[in-house]
Amino acid sequence: MAENLPDTNVGNNDYIRREDVKDALQEKVFHNLSDEFYGAMQVLDELPSADVVQVVRCKDCKHYYFADNRIPQEQRYVCEISGEIWNPDDFCSYGKRRKKNE
Fold first, then answer.
1. Taking Cα atoms as reference points, which of 58, 55, 65, 61 lies closest to residue 87?
2. CB-based burial of residue 22 (10 Å sphere; 0-12 exposed, 13-18 middle, 19+ buried)?
3. Which of 50, 80, 81, 92 has its CA 20 to 30 A from that of 11?
4. What kind and span of H or E run contains 42?
């Protein structure tokens, strides 16, 4: 049955949405609503949720800004809270999503 599942590269530390798993199981494995399907859905519903938090990446943060042209291009973006240079995909606990007009 595993050969019917989509290749998602889900490892031990990946977090996936429960509803996405249910949809994939219904579409790819259980083509009819069998007892096995309902059993699988019950197992998924009974699993505990992962302890995860949504983060704001630096590139989307209102505190992340363009410094100036005197700094080498790969280092032109700075956090106004820490004053340090960060990569666009970094994140921290102070991140606040930038509004569309900022």
1. 58
2. middle
3. 92
4. helix 35-46
Q: Is 77 helix (H, G, I), strand (E, B) or coil?
A: strand
Q: What is the pLDDT of residues 69-90, one digit of tens each?
A: 665 666 678 899 998 888 888 9
Q: Measured between alpha carbons, how far apart are the two ends of the chain, in Å?
A: 49
Q: How far apart are CA 58 and CA 64, in angstroms?
A: 6
Distance separating alpha carbons of residues 35 and 50, to the nearest angstrom: 27
**Rounded CA separation 89/65 (Å):** 14
